[in-house]
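Translate sequence into structure tokens.
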Amino acid sequence: MQDKISVFKQHVREVASNPDFVHHKWFVKWHLEIVEKIAAELRELHPEADRDLVEVMVWLHDYGKILDFDDKYGKTLTAGRQKLTELGFAPEFVDQAIDYIETLDKKLEIDLREAPIEVQIVASADGCSHMVGPFLEIFWHEATDKTFTNKTFEELMELGRKKIDKDWNHKIVLPEAREAFEARYKFHREQSGELPIKFL
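Result follows.
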């Protein structure tokens, strides 16, 4: 199994380095590898979670975005299924990975605290990763969608605040992750314009 996972991870690294992907210069190092590290730490706290499934989900969850930014959810499910099958993962494993990613993508429709533990781990790790390193700054800098162009600093700050709030309220569901990242969340809210009444 680890051999297949290693091949899949290498494949994702390669497609993520394609210059056609807007975030190709940094996405693996400053997002996927950080999600993987956080997910591994959370998995240690939840030994009931399927280690292989969590690892594959980490490298699968943004696969569609890498291949086709405009059809990121659909591509993850179709191209992701095709690639995992092509690499020889068992059909039941592929079905479960795709099903769990589809559940994760419904974060605004369902309460992920009720989802399988593997979904909770990857969702929490993904949300937390956005508060680590330069993720948000680079993400907004490179955003090419018309939603982000010609925005004032204040408007971009509000978009950042909305993204962090979405992560905090819908993705970061494990109590351990929330406890560990609460200070970072508050800090990012402050960076997005929510200043404290007093600084000292």
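Note: The chain has ten helices and no strands.
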